UniProtKB/TrEMBL annotation:
It comes from Lysinibacillus macroides. This is Uncharacterized protein. Residues 8-20, 130-141, 149-161 have a biased composition (Polar residues). Residues 22-60 have a biased composition (Basic and acidic residues). Residues 1-60, 114-161 are annotated as: Disordered.
Length: 161
């Protein structure tokens, strides 16, 4: 004999409850899978942002270094144009990093009766590496390859071939 509750057979009630529970479990499983997919997508996005941040950081450092070099070149060119005495290493630095600016600064140079003598503005790359690794500077060293010669009365430069 079957037991009926509220006019329905007991087996159909149990079956309906099991079916409802299965649907709920399926919905929960689907939501869990969606959350996992969203988490994976966010992790990928975070990794991409991290890579982009690192690349941007490296690019900014490179641009910062380039700007420092350019500012040094502009100051050296300004000193030459003003007719002041500029150290030979600064002339070489400007020639190496911006030859066009060097040529323009020589062309526009104004002669002075009493030119101001400037200390070296540029940093030698070897000296800078040596300073950063040992904390010492190498002020008096020369590389032995004298390409340029300065006139003592002005910042005129003769190029030797």
């Amino acid at each position: 004999m079957r037991i009926e509750a509220n006019g329905y057979p007991q087996s159909s009630i149990v079956q309906a409850q099991v079916s409802k529970q299965a649907m709920d479990d399926e919905k929960q499983l689907k939501k869990q899978q969606e959350r996992e997919q969203e988490l994976k997508r966010q992790e990928k996005m975070a990794e991409q942002l991290k890579r982009e941040t690192e690349a941007t950081k490296k690019q900014m450092e490179a641009e910062k270094d380039a700007l420092k070099i350019y500012m040094t070149c502009l100051e050296i060119a300004r000193r030459i144009t003003a007719g002041d005495k500029v150290p030979m290493k600064d002339h070489k630095y400007l020639i190496e990093h911006d030859p066009a600016l060097y040529g323009k600064s020589l062309t526009l140079r104004i002669s002075k009766e009493d030119p101001k003598e400037h200390k070296q503005l540029s940093e030698d790359e070897e000296e800078q590496q040596h300073t950063s690794s040992t904390g010492l500077t190498n002020e008096g060293s020369t590389d032995g390859h004298e390409v340029l010669n300065t006139d003592t009365s002005s910042s005129a430069v003769d190029i030797k071939i």
